[in-house]
Amino acid sequence: MLCKLIAYQPTRDEAIATMKRALSEFVIEPIKTTIPASLSILSHNLFVKSKIDTEFVERNF
Hints:
Order of helices and strands: HHHH
Strand content: under 5%
Number of domains: 1
Distance between the termini: 21 Å
């Protein structure tokens, strides 16, 4: 693990927006990271609606 990013805001929607902005600003080179996958998860309709379970990633990605 290179780093850990935690976002906190008063609402889920605000926290998701903050996390997406922060991930979009990260620059980690030259290695590949899970940032693109994390951005996809944060943008997924079911994740935004908090309608996920432990198989969410396996089913959708």
